[in-house]
Structure formats: structure tokens, C-alpha cells
Amino acid sequence: MTSLLMTQGAVAGLLEPTSVELVPGEVVVAVGRPGHGNVALALALAGRLRLTGGSVSLGDDPEPAALQQAVVLVDVPGVTEPDDSVPFRVIVAEELALAGRPAGPQATSSWLREHRLATGPALRTEDVPPADRIRTLTELGASRPDARFLILVSPDRHGLHRRDWWPVARSAADAGLGVLVTVSEAVELAGHTTLITAIGGAGRSEEASA
Could you tell me the superkingdom of the organism this chain comes from (predicted)? Predict the structure, then answer.
């Protein structure tokens, strides 16, 4: 089983040394202060930001191209975050195309209806309930043919609670992906069995349900 492993990965001025391992079928939650660290961690794990210290590899392969192909970035601020002013059906069509699925107007409308989402052409992304937005982007990202790992960045910035994003992340892991969710330190994780790592910390711990 191939894992995605970062060991003491650091980016000067953006990410303090961080260690995390993603394994297919598992969800890890990375906790840190809001800001650049969440984005830098995601980009580095996806081979899109060069480390200034430490290492990141897909199994034994450290090449950025391998990481870029295998890792899907979901809703990363300033990177893959959808433009709020764009009609949501346009975003869905783009994601369907990236997943190698029919993405024309009829196919997009059909997908939206099947998932109980509004199909109106005037519905802007900013008007979609955050939970529906995250669920849609994660599900479509996980369906890309080469996806092996998925990183969802800061769903709590939309006001979402663990109950909103955890089932989405768990569903992607149940489909065989290794999943990382980054959240701020304010997110309540106590009382849940969750694999946790600290952004800017070297260790990983398991917090058991109360």
C-alpha cells in the first residue's frame, strides 16, 4: 500500500517543519493556526510548492510530477477555491470534465438533480450552502481517474462544523483515497476517534472517542 509521506517538510516563511503520512482509506486532520501554513502544506504535499527543508514522497517516488498526478486539492484558498461570482453549474461542469465524465449542459443538469442541487444557470457559487459546496467539490475531486489522495483545506472557514465535513472526508476515504483535512485550532475534535497531526509539528497522535 503506497502512502504519501512528508517528513519534517518546511517552506521558509510559510510552513514550519511538519510530518504527516496519508494512507489510502484513512482520514488525517491537520490542525494549525489560520493562514499560509494550511495552503503551503497542501501545495507541498501535491508537489506544487518546493520544500526548503525535509522531504515529501509518494511511496519511494519524490518527483513532483508523481505527486501532482496523484493528489487532488479541494477548495484551496487562492488556488483551487472556486470564484464566488461564477455560476455553480459552471464549476460543476469543470469538475466533471476533470473527472473525465460528460460535462455538457444536459449532463451537468442531470448530475446536479441526482445530487439534489439547484440547477439554475444564475445560481452563483457564493449562494450555494457551504456544506453542499464542500460535498460537491470533494465528491467530484475524488472521482478523478488518477486521484489517490485528496486534501481539503480549511472547511471551517465557511462556518462548517466537524459534523458537516467529516462525513464527506470519510466517504472519500471509504472510496479508497487517503484524505487530509486542514482545520484551525478552534475546531472541536475532542470526543472523536481522529488521527491528528499539527501543522508545524513533527508528530501524529490518535485521539480516542470519549
Answer: Bacteria
- Return all residues near 130 (Cβ < 8 A) that are at least 6 apart: 155, 158, 159, 160, 164
- Backbone φ/ψ region at 35: left (φ over 0), alpha (ψ -120 to 50), beta: left
Amino acid letter, 16: E
Nearest to 187 by CA among 33, 48, 59: 33
3-state secondary structure of 82: coil
Q: Which CATH number fits domain 4-84+146-207: 3.30.540.10, 3.40.50.300, 3.40.190.10, 3.30.470.20?
A: 3.40.50.300
Domain locations along the chain: 4-84+146-207
**Secondary-structure breakdown of the chain: helix, strand, coil percentages, each rounded to the nearest 5:** 35, 25, 40
What is the DSSP code (8-state) at residue 6?
Answer: E
Question: How many angstroms separate the Cα of 31 from the Cα of each of 7, 26, 75, 180?
Answer: 16, 16, 17, 10
Q: What pTM did the predictor assign?
A: 0.92
Query: Hey, what's the cell of 201?
Result: 509539528
